[in-house]
Amino acid sequence: MQILQTFFRFNIMEKLRIAIQKSGRLSEKSVSILKEAGISLTNGERKLLSVSGSFPIEVLYLRDDDIPQYVRDKVADIGIVGENVFAEKGNDIEIIERLGFSRCRLSLAVPKQVTYNGPAFFNNRKIATSYPVILKRYLDDKGIKAEIHEISGSVEIAPGIGLADGIFDIVSSGSTLIGNGLQEVEVVMKSEAVIIGRSDLQDGKKSILNDLLFRIRSVLAATNNKYILLNAPNDKLDQIISIIPGMKSPTVMPLAESGWSSVHSVLSESQFWQIINELRAYGAQGILVIPIEKMIV
Ligand code: ATP
Ligand code: MG
């Protein structure tokens, strides 16, 4: 029975089809997160479709803008896109998991010599963008009437050539804006890579998806955490343990030298530097920090 269940769970006919970006800022990370989740892909990224030999999954390589539509039309079951593309084109589908990479924001920008006095500036002005839906939602919400000029690429040059008074586009470091003589004036949304999908997946595919998500969460948790080992003076052990709680609680072992213990634990990357400084202040020594390959959460 157990064997049969396992067989049907990973029925050879049944595969989950995931759409990822063919070539661009999301492609490399999308492939590598699958690889780290133990999903090896048989043929190169030049193909439209590749199959995994190690997991019941097929990968479809597409332009990122097309992925929401393919998921909605059930050609793909899930996809990896920027949250910005989901917000623009993701009606009727949903975010299944946040992946934390390709972080950027969607912002309004105007020429740097302009005196900007708040969103009302855009009343009766022209804004160039590739994200008309998100922009319209923002302007409606603020009660601003502006003309949205949709263009598909090189939005940042629009004010310079007299096509628009401002732009609404992706910003990460801001250097493209500066290079084009623009200033960022409003951050409208923040974005990161996300897995998108439909709510109506059939049971077999849902079970493959749950397995995939379990693996991906383990990979993400591992990247966001570090294993830490240190030597602590016993009289400061309580304070040291209180600042590194660990997954359950830290492992504490006596050192050969009396009065000292070895403490092992897990630290999140975001708290890392602050905690290291506190540990040193409490007299911790020989601090080792080690990357974690997988973390089962
Ligand atoms: P395609 O040819 O597939 O349509 P594209 O040119 O529309 O690609 P890319 O520039 O490859 O898109 O960006 C893909 C996604 O990566 C964006 O939708 C956004 O979520 C994210 N992104 C874009 N620029 C940056 C950046 N500078 N830093 C981090 N993430 C970014
Ligand atoms: Mg695109």
Can you offer a commentary on this structure?
- The structure is a single chain.
- The protein has 297 residues and is an alpha/beta fold.
- 29% of the residues lie in helices and 31% in strands.
- The protein has nine helices and 15 strands.
- It has helices at residues 2-9, 27-36, 67-72, 83-89, 132-142, 175-179, 203-223, 237-243, 272-281, and strands spanning 16-21, 49-51, 57-62, 78-82, 94-98, 104-111, 126-129, 147-150, 166-171, 182-191, 193-197, 225-233, 251-254, 260-268, 285-291.
- The strands form three sheets. The protein has a six-stranded mixed β-sheet with strand order 2-3-1-4-11-5. It has a five-stranded mixed β-sheet with strand order 8-7-9-6-10.
- A hairpin with a 5-residue loop joins strand 2 and strand 3 (57-62).
- The protein is flat.
- The model has no long low-confidence stretch (mean pLDDT 93).
- The structure holds adenosine-5'-triphosphate and magnesium ion.
- Adenosine-5'-triphosphate binds next to helix 4.
- Residues 21, 24-26, 63-65, 82, 84-85, 102-104, 170, 172, 191 line the site of adenosine-5'-triphosphate (ATP).
